Amino acid sequence: MTAMGGVTVQEKTQPKAFAAFTLLHKQQHDMKRGDKFQYSVQVGSNGLRGSTAWLIPPNDFDLLRSLLKRQHGHLKNATADSLVSPGLGQYAQHTHCPTHVNAHLFPIYILHETEEPETRQRRGRQQGDDEWMELKTVAIRADRDIQSGEEILIHYVGSGRSGDFRKVFSCVCCVCTGKCSLASRARDSVL
To answer: Is 186 helix (H, G, I), strand (E, B) or coil?
Structure first.
């Protein structure tokens, strides 16, 4: 397992920065031409209270900085270089091939509680009223032993990623280039 480097922007604790990056991401993603946020990941779940967040790796910082200019001060502060955590997970490659995929994205959260369980019970509050999940990082987790020199391959969509990544990059995996013997079957099942 290896962590993706970058900065997390939490919906619960940084709502303005979260909203600003969500807007920028959508605007860039919907453009027909131009650079896209290729490495940023939005993770979270309605089932995990306060868990929705963006992980923005350094690979997307040049594009982010070019878009921020004078706007979105909250997002500038939340993505300051001094807040960037180290990691190499963002260098994993995408594949549509179910045979060659060997890892997946794995969000790592910390549970925050603002009241002790006894205090919450005395006040008649339900479990979860004062707790939320903070995304600390996203890791790449191996699904099997990966040999030295073997490429780490994940499937972006279905691994915490959302959206149509054909707009972001031209896939050159073994399925999309026709190099895999399972190419037609694999491509039909994942696209």
So the answer is: helix
